[in-house]
Write a structure and sequence with these properties.
The complex is a heterodimer of chains A (489) and B (98).
Chain A lengths: L10 H9 L5 H19 L2 E4 L1 H17 L9 E5 L26 H9 L2 E6 L33 H8 L5 E5 L6 H7 L2 E4 L20 E5 L2 H11 L29 E5 L9 H16 L3 E5 L7 H16 L18 H12 L2 H14 L4 H22 L5 E5 L15 H5 L6 H6 L3 E9 L2 E8 L5 H14 L12
Parallel strand pairs in A: 2-3, 7-8, 7-9
Antiparallel strand pairs in A: 1-3, 4-6, 5-6, 5-10, 9-11, 10-11
Chain B lengths: L4 H10 L9 H15 L34 H5 L5 E2 L2 E2 L10
Antiparallel strand pairs in B: 1-2
Helix pairs in contact in B: 1-2
The chains are: A alpha/beta (489), B mainly alpha (98).
C-alpha cells in the first residue's frame, strides 16, 4: 500500500512514521515549510514562519527519537495561533498594537508543546485580539478558506483552520471565546475542540474575555485532538482559573462503543434559521450516529435566544477591562510625538487598535460605566446562570448534545464586514457553550454546495473524552474528515 | 438606548481612544444597534437568580504570597517604546507653573 503524502497523514500516522524512522522530523518539518512557501501567499494563514527555530527543534526531536526517549508527539510540527506568547518570537495577536511585541516568556501551552518535543512551524493569523468570526479583522490581512479562496475561513482562529485544511501544518492551536475554534473548524472541514473552561492553562494566552477564553486543538481527526489534549491539559498554578480536575488519557476511550448513548437535539438549534440543505446534511450525520447505536431525543434550551445578547454584554465588558493594559507605555505600539500623557494613551490606542476592537472596548466601557453596571453587566451575569442551567437540566436526560456548529457554510470575503451584528450572529450555535463553560467540538459532517459543514457535539463539564469518543467513532464510519481541498492535495 | 455623538466622544475618552471626527457618526449608529440587540436580556425576570461570574462557579484561587519569579527587569524592558536607565519614559506629567 502506498503511503499518502505527509501533509495528508494524521498525527498518529506521522508519529508512527517518525518512530519507525520512515522519515525524520527534519524531513517532515521541511515538507511543511516548503508547503507554506508554496501555498501561503494564497491562504495568508501564517503571520510569522519560524523556519530556523523549527529546523533546530526538529533536529533536537530527531535526537530524542534516536535515543529512544521520544513521546507520541515528539517531532510533530504544529502551527500556533498568534495569541500564545512565544519567548523571543513576535506575538502580535493579529494587531498593529503588538506588531513589534517580542514575548519575553512562553505560554504554559507553548512550554508543554516544547516539552513534548513538538516543532513550532510558525504563528497563525487571527482576528485582532480574537475579536471576529472571519479573520478579516487581522492587521495582517484576511486569511482565505482553502475550499474556496473567495470565502472566509471563519474566525477568530481562521489562520489555524485554513492552515490545517490546506495541509500547511498537521495540527494547530486555536482559542475559543464564543466559537472561535468550532466555527472556523466547521467552515474549513476540520475537527476543532474547545475544552471545558479551565481545562488548558490560559497563562501566556493573550486575554480577550477571561471568563470565556479557552484554548484547544484544531486537527484532522478526533484521535489527533485526543493525542494533543493529553499533552496540554491540566492544572497550572500560574493560571488562577485553571482546574485541578485529573486529566484522563483521552486516547484510551476513543474506541469505546457508543451503543446506548443518548444524544439530545436542542429544538431551538434546529429552527428555520438553519439553512435547509445544512439541516439535511446534519440529519444524515445524526443517522450515522444512530447506526452506531446512539439514541436520539429532543431537548429544549429555552433561553437560547438570550445567549448572543448576554455574551456581548459580558465578553465586551471583560474585553474593555483586559485591553486597558495597552497604554503605549510599557510595550506595544506608541504614537508619534505625544503632546502629553493623555494624548499618548488616546492616540496610541486609537491608532494601535482597528475598528472592531475599538467598538468592543467602547461598548464594554459603556456598560461598565457608572450607573449602567447593574442594568447590563449584573443583569447579564444572572441571565448567564439561566443559560447554564438550561444545559444542566438537559444533561439530566441525555449524555451529550448534538447540533449545528454554524448556521451557514463559509461566507464570502467582505460579505459581513459592514454589519457587525450580522457577523456576531454567525456564532449563534457556539456562544451558549462558552457562557456555560462546557466542552464543545465541531467535526466535519459533509458538504453543502462543495463547502464543508460541521456537526457540533456539546458535553458536560470535563467530559472531553466522551466528545472525542463519539467524534472518533463517527470518523470510523465516515470520511468527511479525510477530504482535502483540490488545490492543496 | 440610542448613543449620540457626544456620548461616543465621552465613552471614547473614558476608554482612552482617539477617534477621527469623521468616524463618530458611524460608531454612534453601530453602538446604538448593538445596545438595542443586547437590551433583550431585560425581557427576563431575574429577581431570584444569582449572578454567574465563573462558568464552573469556582471561587478565585489565591496563591501563597511567596516570591516565585526571578528578576527579569532587563528582558521586560526590551519591549518598551521608550526607556532610559531602566525606566519607562513618558511625556512630562507635572506642568511647570509660569
Amino acid at each position: 500500500m502506498s503511503q499518502s503524502p505527509l501533509h495528508q497523514q494524521t498525527l498518529s500516522q506521522l508519529a508512527s512514521g517518525l518512530h519507525k524512522k520512515s522519515f525524520s522530523s527534519v524531513e517532515l518539518t521541511s515538507h511543511f515549510l516548503d508547503r507554506i512557501k508554496q501555498y501561503d501567499n494564497q491562504l495568508n494563514s501564517y503571520i510569522t514562519v519560524c523556519d530556523k527555530t523549527a529546523l533546530a527543534q526538529a533536529k533536537a526531536a530527531d535526537e530524542r527519537l534516536a535515543q529512544g526517549n521520544a513521546g507520541p508527539l515528539t517531532g510533530i510540527p504544529i502551527g500556533q495561533k498568534d495569541i500564545f506568547c512565544t519567548q523571543g518570537i513576535k506575538t502580535s495577536c493579529g494587531s498593529k498594537m503588538l506588531d513589534n511585541f517580542i514575548a519575553p516568556y512562553s505560554a504554559t501551552l507553548i512550554e508543554k508543546c516544547d516539552t513534548a518535543g513538538m516543532v513550532m512551524l510558525g504563528k497563525l493569523n487571527m482576528d485582532e485580539f480574537a475579536m471576529g468570526s472571519s479573520t478579516e479583522n487581522s492587521f495582517y490581512g484576511p486569511s482565505k478558506n482553502p475550499w474556496d479562496e473567495n470565502t472566509v475561513p471563519g474566525g477568530s482562529s481562521g489562520g489555524s483552520a485554513a492552515a490545517v485544511a490546506g495541509g500547511l501544518c498537521p495540527i494547530a492551536t486555536g482559542t475559543d471565546t464564543g466559537g472561535s475554534i468550532r466555527q472556523p473548524a466547521s467552515f474549513c472541514g476540520i475537527t476543532g475542540l474547545k475544552p471545558t473552561y479551565g481545562r488548558i492553562s490560559r497563562y501566556g494566552m493573550i486575554a480577550f474575555a477571561s471568563s470565556f477564553d479557552q484554548a484547544g486543538p484544531m486537527t484532522r481527526t478526533a484521535e489527533d485532538a485526543a493525542l494533543f489534549l493529553n499533552a496540554v491539559a491540566g492544572f497550572d498554578p500560574k493560571d488562577s482559573t485553571s482546574c485541578e480536575e485529573p486529566v484522563p488519557d483521552y486516547t484510551q476511550t476513543l474506541n469505546d462503543s457508543i451503543e446506548g448513548l443518548t444524544l439530545g437535539l436542542p429544538k431551538e438549534y434546529f429552527t428555520d434559521d438553519l439553512d435547509s440543505s445544512i439541516a439535511t446534511t446534519l440529519n444524515d450525520a445524526i443517522e450515522a450516529l444512530k447506526k452506531l447505536g446512539a439514541k436520539v431525543k429532543e431537548v429544549s434550551l429555552p433561553h437560547t435566544d438570550y445567549a448572543v445578547p448576554t455574551y456581548y454584554i459580558l465578553a465586551l465588558a471583560e474585553c474593555s477591562s483586559n485591553l486597558s493594559r495597552y497604554d503605549g507605555v510599557r510595550f506595544g505600539y506608541r504614537c508619534e510625538n505625544p503632546k502629553n500623557l493623555t494624548d499618548l494613551y488616546e492616540r496610541s490606542r486609537g491608532e494601535g487598535f482597528a475598528d472592531e476592537v475599538k467598538r468592543r472596548i467602547m461598548l464594554g466601557t459603556y456598560t461598565l460605566s457608572a450607573g449602567y453596571y447593574d442594568a447590563y453587566y449584573l443583569k447579564a451575569q444572572k441571565v448567564r446562570r439561566l443559560i447554564a442551567q438550561d444545559f444542566h437540566k438537559a444533561f439530566a436526560d441525555v449524555d451529550m448534545l448534538v447540533c449545528p456548529t454554524s448556521p451557514t457554510t463559509a461566507f464570502g470575503l467582505g460579505e459581513k464586514t459592514s454589519d457587525p451584528i450580522s457577523m456576531y450572529l454567525s456564532d449563534i450555535y457556539t456562544i451558549a457553550v462558552n457562557l456555560a463553560g462546557l466542552p464543545g467540538m465541531s467535526i466535519p459532517a459533509g458538504f453543502v454546495n462543495e463547502k464543508p459543514i460541521g456537526l457540533q457535539l456539546i458535553g458536560q463539564h470535563f467530559q472531553e473524552s466522551k466528545l472525542l469518543n463519539v467524534g472518533h467513532q463517527f470518523q470510523t464510519v465516515t470520511d468527511w474528515h479525510s477530504n482535502m481541498p483540490a488545490n492543496y492535495r | 438606548m440610542s448613543i449620540k455623538l457626544e456620548d461616543v466622544v465621552k465613552i471614547a475618552h473614558l476608554a482612552r481612544l482617539s477617534l477621527p471626527e469623521s468616524t463618530l457618526e458611524q460608531y454612534a449608529g453601530q453602538l446604538s444597534n448593538i445596545l438595542a440587540m443586547v437590551e433583550k436580556v431585560n425581557e427576563l425576570d431575574t429577581e431570584q437568580v444569582e449572578p454567574l461570574a465563573n462558568p464552573l462557579d469556582n471561587i478565585q484561587r489565591l496563591r501563597k504570597d511567596e516570591v516565585t519569579e526571578t528578576d527579569q527587569h532587563n528582558a521586560f524592558m526590551q519591549n518598551a517604546p521608550a526607556s532610559e536607565a531602566g525606566v519607562f519614559l513618558v511625556p512630562k506629567v507635572i506642568e511647570t507653573i509660569e
